[in-house]
Amino acid sequence: MAAHTVKAFDDDLDQLRASIAEMGGLAEAAISESLRALMQNDLEAAMRVIANDKKLDALESEIERNVVQLIALRAPMADDLREVVAALKIAGVVERIGDYAKNIAKRVHVIEAAAHIEPLSLLPEMGRIVGEMVHNVLNAFAARDADLAVQVCDRDRAVDDFYNSIFRTLLTFMMETPHLITPATHLLFIAKNLERIGDHATNVAEMVYFAATGEQMTERHKGEDGTGDWTDD
After folding, report:
1. Is 79 or 29 the better-scoring residue by pLDDT?
2. Closest to 40 in 3D by CA, of 105, 119, 137, 129
3. What is the torsional sign of CA 199, 43, 47, 110?
4. 101-130: pLDDT as tens digits
């Protein structure tokens, strides 16, 4: 491959990585801002999260176009092809993470009564962990760091533990306080959205690991929470 072609390909990859990083930054901000809006009952902040989701959608579409063009023009092979394909898949997953953050923001206006529900206090820490997972897994992609990808997967157990604790506590709360079943149910959906973000971060980690090593990550153990895979899309 001619030197100028190699340079052009490297530039294309750098641009692709930058776009993924930008998507990741927007998704991280959406997670933290939606939870801040929830804790402070900030309806304006919640509306901003919902509106900003369009930026993630636009970036995903741009990345899809760039990947198709890059494959058509550069015909990448081996590890380069794995990275390009991983970028395409990761863009879709990050867009989905943004959707989960948007779903949290949509519930801010309907759960004012949740202020006195104790599990609400657990959500910010759960959100901090999943936000950190998203941040680290995208750093792993940018650096082709398989070890960091494995560490991200290891953090998913803490997210599952938070979710299981919140789930059980809220079920007990709803049985004891039936007049607050509606806000408690909304909190369950929010906790499930955060748990799904953690799952998506681990999915990205597996893609990063494969792109970096050419091998599938050893299947990780998933705990049984008995709650099913319900969420609002």
Report:
1. 29
2. 105
3. positive
4. 999 999 988 876 556 677 778 888 999 999
- For residue 13, what are its two tokens? 């990859």
Beta carbons within 8 Å of 190's beta carbon, 6+ residues apart: 38, 103, 104, 107, 123
CATH code linked to domain 3-213: 1.20.58.220
**Amino acid present at 178:** P
**Selection from 92, 64, 83, 93 nearest residue 201 by Cα:** 93
Q: Which of 84, 61, 64 is nearest to 74 (CA)?
A: 84
Which residues, including other chains, have CB under 8 Å from residue 54's CB and lie 6 or more apart?
none
Q: Where are the domains of the chain?
A: 3-213
Helices 123-143 and 3-40: angle between axes, nearest 10 degrees: 180
Please write the tens of the pLDDT for every residue from 152-169. Answer: 999 999 999 999 999 999
